[in-house]
Amino acid sequence: MRLSGENTKKLCGARRLSLNALLKRAGVSKTAYYHLIDKESVLPRSIGALAAALGVRPSALLEESDRESRRALRLLEAADRIAGSDPSMDRDNIRHTLLLLEEKPIDRLRRSLLRARKPDLHQ
Amino acid sequence: MPENLIFTNKEIGFLRELKRQKVEFMLVGAAAAALQGAPVVTQDVDLWFEDVKDPGIQTALRKSSGIMVPSFGQNGPTFAGEAVKLFDIVLTMPGLMGFDEERKNSFDVRLGSVNVRILELGRIIKSKETIGRPKDLLVLPVLRDTLKTLRHKKTRRKPARTKRGR
After folding, report:
1. pLDDT of B1 strictly over 50
2. Structural domain of A53
3. What percent of chain B has pLDDT over 90?
4. Looking at residue B151, which CATH number applies to its domain?
5. Would the CB atoms of B6 and A98 count as touching at under 8 Å?
6. How would residue A65 be classed by pLDDT, with cut points 50, 70 and 90?
7. Do residue A18 and residue A37 come from a single domain?
8. With the CA atoms of A110, B68, B72 and B32 taken in that order, what torsion angle do they form, in degrees rounded to the nearest 10?
9. Which A positions 49-108 lie with beta carbon below 8 A of chain B?
10. What confidence score (pLDDT) does residue B139 get?
11. Number of helical H runs and strand E runs in chain A
12. Can you list the alpha helix ranges (DSSP code H) found in A15-85?
């Protein structure tokens, strides 16, 4: 399984990011990135061997380790999409709204009432 | 999940009793905005009544061990009592039409075990723009961003099934 430079650039384009900006945001050096691009496979050799022995693609053996991080990523992508369509919008407002929309209305209301009662809110 | 220590069965019971008494009301203000996903804080839940003299309000208050304190001086009428102290009475919504006309700009939301009518976010924004107090102006950018986010989401998926105003 290779790292696709083409897919990376496409995803950057969709988010109005240059490749350099992406690498900076992700904290990945150009050297590390191009090293990965050049590799025949970014997966450990043993995973390839296991997959070959089972007659499946290596991706069939993998799963996302953290469902919450996947959910958070999906939400950030949605916030990016919306912010990209209207630069006047505040990204945090969008993200918080999207988070609240995943809750039941009564829980949204309780949050807003509870926060108003936090004594340290304005400190 | 937030703690369930606030807005409990007491408050929901009062809203249910208002509906049982067929009192016409809707939630407005920051609480209604929060119900629609706005990341805002609020001290109280504003209830806009079609007719604040509706006898059903007094019946609902009695059943919830609450009372209505009549207006005096610059202060409008208020509720008192454990089950109703979170609610504020709204007599008019500046910048908007009357209650009956604004009903078409409202929809039902499930609040615990009861469906309550709430005013659309766009109309809440319009009213806050008209009032223009510093606290309203501060929250307006957040409300506008929430409205744009909701519209953006609506264009990407089917609208939620809600009962619109009659």
Report:
1. no
2. 1-62
3. 82
4. 3.30.460.40
5. no
6. low
7. yes
8. 30
9. 81-82, 85-86, 89-90, 93-94, 96-101, 103-108
10. 96
11. 7, 0
12. 19-26, 30-38, 45-54, 67-85
Can you tell me which residue has the tokens 């008019």?
Answer: B92
A104, pLDDT greater than 90: yes
What band does A119 get if pLDDT is binned at 50, 70 and 90? low
The two structure tokens encoding residue A8: 């990376």
Pick from B34, B45, B148: CB nearest A89? B148
Tell me, yes or no, whether B4 lies in a domain.
Answer: no
Among residues A12, A22, A81, which one has the least CA distance to residue A89?
A: A81
Same domain, yes or no, for A56 and A5? yes
B160 shares contact with chain A (CB less than 8 Å): no
Assign A59 a pLDDT band (cuts: 50, 70, 90).
confident
Residues 42-101 of B with CB under 8 A from A: 42-43, 45, 86
Nearest to A108 among B3, B35, B145 (CB): B35
Look over chain A and give the mean of its residue pLDDT values, rounded to a whole number.
86
**Distance (Å) from the alpha carbon of A110 to chain B's nearest alpha carbon:** 6
Cβ distance of A96 and B39 shorter than 8 Å: yes
Q: Please report the DSSP string for B40-98 in residue order.
A: ---SSEEEEES-TT-HHHHHHHHHTT-EEEPPBTTB--EEESTTTTTEEEE---TTS--
Smallest CA–CA distance from A113 into chain B, residue: B42
| B45: containing domain | 9-156
Q: What is the pLDDT of residue B38?
A: 97
Q: Are residues A81 and A36 in the same domain?
A: no
Alpha-carbon gap, residue B8 to A67, rounded angstroms: 31
B162, part of any domain:
no
Confidence (pTM)? 0.72
Q: Write the residue in B4, B37, B145 that is nearest to A101 by C-beta.
A: B37
